[in-house]
Amino acid sequence: SGLTVLNLKEALKQLDFLRDFYWRIIPVDLDKFTALAALYEESGYVIIADKGFKFDKPVQACLLVKSPKSLQTPHNIVIAGEGSNLHVLTGCTTAPESFGLHVGISEFYVGRNATVTFTMIHSWSKASHVRPRTAVLVEEGGRFISNYVVLKPATSIQTYPSIRLIGEGASAVSTSIVLGSENSKIDVGSSVSLESKGSNCRILSRVVGGGASETIVRSSIEALVDEVKGHTECNGIVISGNASIVAIPELKAKAKNVELTH
Questions:
Q1: Residue 127: pLDDT band by 50, 70, 90 thresholds?
Q2: Where are the alpha helices (H) located in the chain, listed in sequence order?
Q3: How many angstroms separate the CA atoms of 181 and 189, rounded?
Q4: Eight-state DSSP code of residue 257
Q5: What sign does the dihedral 62-149-182-100 (CA atoms) show?
Q6: Cα–Cα distance measured from residue 232 to residue 249, given in angstroms and rounded to the nearest whole number
Q7: pLDDT at residue 153 in the model
Q8: What is the DSSP letter of 50?
Q9: Which residues contact 182 (CB under 8 A, 6 or more apart)?
Q10: Which of 65, 136, 123 has its CA nearest to residue 98?
Q11: Are strands 45-49 and 3-7 parallel, antiparallel or unpaired?
């Protein structure tokens, strides 16, 4: 009770209001991958927690690539109503015979005093190219917690979620845990925009560089108003002579009374 889980096509037919959240915070023309996703959109999942919804178990969703030479373009929408508490546990994986391109569009809407925890565990094949595009909007007192985990090699991964804290006291914690292996090229991170008084964030990365992997970890925190705080932290260890890790932290202050640290 209080939880709706549908695929995108069914949800758009059944829920008239969903159109207001569909391609709202990710522009179709953001880059060539968003355009590709819009052109070849398959479906995706829609998860909606009603006002006050709380449950001690996660909602699980999984995306599987099985066909060879695949293009996978899901569009996912997660909406957490006022005061709700939602944990989404999801993974993306590929069958051994599969290879191709994954372009997943994900939009998160965290309501007033709601908490969303999103845990993504990637298990790609060696021949996969991965280009998710994610945006998050957090209202007053809301909290968004992201755990992004890469444990298997892929040809390339590039993801850079954009999180906007638009309500007073809104907060976010974005953590990337990456095991670089074989010849993978991995480019991950997050950006957070602090747009309201009392908003705060942390962007954390933990990277192990193995094989001949190349890992880039990015973080950007932008303070647009007074009385906000942001912290970014990059930790990595190289365990192979052929691996590399690059950390690119960025702090932007556009107001006087802010606290940004690295």
A1: confident
A2: 8-14, 32-39
A3: 18
A4: S
A5: positive
A6: 7
A7: 85
A8: P
A9: 126, 153, 211, 212, 213
A10: 65
A11: antiparallel
